[in-house]
Write a structure and sequence with these properties.
Order of helices and strands: HEHHEEHHHHHHH
Number of strands: 3
Structural class: alpha+beta
Keywords: Signal
Oligomer: single chain
Shape: globular
Strand order of the largest sheet: 1-3-2
CATH architecture of the largest domain: Alpha Horseshoe
Strand content: 5-15%
CATH topology of the largest domain: Serine Threonine Protein Phosphatase 5, Tetratricopeptide repeat
Number of domains: 2
Helix content: 55-70%
């Protein structure tokens, strides 16, 4: 365990050196590049959603928006590396790690809408830690048995960022069928989460099943995923 901890510390130091060699960090209290964000996200609960689930997905939506805004700022300054096809995995895990920062929370029983207003400073270190965590989760998944892959057990713990990151890792590695099987199981837990259906559309596109991909995108759009709506409206087949 001590050797593993030491290795992770060395990896963290190496990634930090790679991430911003010689860059000025003026304007930050800690010397590490960061950005304060304020975001708001509303999740419309559907049949099968508990209040706890709705609030958790609203929080994930708000934190993910904050992560994207911070990433754009840090990358524009030349501080944040390009994660390429790992970007969504890492961003999900950054969002998953942001446990504090809610400044306003509400749930309308009449409308079934959970709304979160979130304010938090997000630093380069948050991305580095998420990158290390993503690599660790990928190593764990390499040891999954065939049964664990084909009949995944979804934990009752509500952790949308970590759970979605696993689906994105399958998609990155072109394990389309395993991604869909996993997302099908995850759908039982989050039946009205548009982002989940958008991820499923990506997997169907990987298998060149355009009809199913469009159906999944339509479901995602109907459930409030604006990125899915834009893809549907775009000319030509979805990509």
């Amino acid at each position: 365990m001590k050797m593993k901890t030491a290795a992770e510390i060395l990896l963290l130091a190496a990634v930090l050196m790679y991430a911003f060699p010689g860059k000025s960090t003026a304007g930050t209290d800690s010397g590490v590049p960061e950005m304060q964000t304020v975001t708001v996200f509303s999740y419309h609960a559907g049949p099968g959603d508990s209040r706890q689930t709705a609030c958790a997905l609203a929080l994930f939506g708000a934190t993910y928006k904050a992560v994207v805004l911070s990433a754009d700022h840090l990358a524009g300054k030349g501080w944040l590396k390009d994660y390429g096809d790992r970007q969504m995995e890492v961003f999900c895990l950054v969002a998953d790690s942001l446990k504090t920062g809610i400044i306003q929370q509400s749930f309308s029983e009449k409308e079934g809408v959970a709304t979160i207003k979130f304010r938090r400073r997000i630093s380069l270190n948050d991305f580095v830690r998420a990158e290390i965590r993503n690599a660790a989760l990928e190593r764990e998944e390499r040891h999954f048995s065939l049964q664990e892959e084909m009949e995944p057990v979804v934990s009752p713990t509500i952790a949308p960022g970590q759970e979605l990151s696993r689906a994105y890792r399958y998609i990155r590695k072109c394990h389309w069928r395993m991604a869909i099987i996993y997302l099908d199981h995850l759908e039982n837990k989050y039946p009205c989460w548009g982002t989940l259906f958008h991820a499923k559309a990506m997997a169907y596109l990987g298998m060149h099943e355009t009809g199913r991909a469009l159906s999944a995108l339509s479901s995602a759009c109907h459930l409030g995923d604006q990125a899915a709506c834009l893809k549907i409206k775009a000319p030509g087949p979805p990509d």
